[in-house]
Amino acid sequence: MNLGQLIEACEYKSGFNDSAYRPRWINFLNEALRDFARRQPWAGLEDTVDLTTDGTKYLVLPQYVDTVVSILNMTDKIPVDRSGNYDREATYEETSGTTGRVCNYETLGDVPVLRDPTGYVWFKSSHASDIQTVYFTGLATNSGASGTALSKAYTTLSIQAAGVSPVTCTTLFASFISVAKSTDSNGDFFFYDAGDSDKHVSFISKHETDARFRRLKLFYPPNATKSIRVRFRHYAPPLRDNAQSPHPSVKPDFLINYAIARHWGEQEQLQKEQLADNNATRLLEREVNKDTNFNEPDCQIIPWRPFSEDESDDFYRSVN
């Protein structure tokens, strides 16, 4: 089922048919799609990416990474485990200044940029028709003529994009809290650091409204350039156009019931929300281990063959 058909099914089953409510159905269905990908990942959703440490204790992952499955230190040929005692290891690492092999990591959450800029940030879209507003929120540094910082304050800058033509931010940011655009766009947005040879610092997909990268903290900070292989699950791209369809492994009935549950929750119909949620959960449980349990060589359909007269008499005598 494509997005248009999923919305029609949600409207029919919920009895709530309002064209103005369409954006909410799209949000609910995309929330359901991401939840399905996390709870019942399909074959092909996992992949690997090789990254190189930049000399700091942080590792920022590409924007298409949703969840980390495992990490391998390719340089030292050892696995990188999830830290089980963050406070103790962080305290030792921070106070001792020890560097060396990367053998543990800790998830620090999402950040809007790959690295803090060293100069003014400029951006452009990959499509000439994109002229919507782009918003930057972060820590701005105001300096005097001598370069001495006078004050630091969090500020928001809104600036209009000019399609494929570069636009430079008028505020010098030391770090960012968020980088976002007002609506979906026809192209992808790329952001560059003019103070560091125009290197990429951020990215927003045309179907997303904000920049988002997962950041990890490494124990111990690498003492040299390290090659890190990350096995991850892809971020399921959202549905926006009527003709778009989710991955074939995603069950439409789950998406519909999940979206209807979110709808009833928003309407404060708690019993109906619980019922739809239960239906979605049952649909998901039916898919668990189905591929593992189905072993094609051992699951053969044996054709039915009627008994001959002799076989029938033998069978009758055996049971009597």
Quick rundown:
With 320 residues, the protein is α+β, with helices and mostly antiparallel strands. The protein has helices spanning 3-14, 22-39, 86-96, 252-266, 270-285, 290-293, 309-319; strands at 46-52, 58-60, 65-73, 78-82, 104-111, 121-125, 133-143, 149-160, 167-168, 173-181, 189-193, 199-204, 213-219, 227-234. It starts with a helix and ends with a helix.
List keywords for this structure.
single chain; 320 residues; alpha+beta; seven-stranded mixed sheet; four-stranded antiparallel sheet; 7 helices; 14 strands; 27% helix; globular
What does this structure look like?
- The chain is an alpha+beta fold.
- It folds into 3 domains: 3-43 and 237-287, no CATH class; 46-112 and 215-234, no CATH class; 121-211, no CATH class.
- 27% of the residues lie in helices and 30% in strands.
- It has helices at residues 3-14, 22-39, 86-96, 252-266, 270-285, 290-293, 309-319, and strands spanning 46-52, 58-60, 65-73, 78-82, 104-111, 121-125, 133-143, 149-160, 167-168, 173-181, 189-193, 199-204, 213-219, 227-234.
- The strands form 3 sheets. The chain has a 7-stranded mixed sheet. The protein has a 4-stranded antiparallel sheet with strand order 9-6-11-12, with no helix packed on it. Strands 8-7-10 form a 3-stranded antiparallel sheet, with no helix packed on it.
- Strand 3 (65-73) and strand 4 (78-82) form a beta hairpin.
- Helix 1 (3-14) packs across helix 4 (252-266).
- It is globular, with a radius of gyration of 27 Å.
- The N and C termini lie far apart (55 Å).
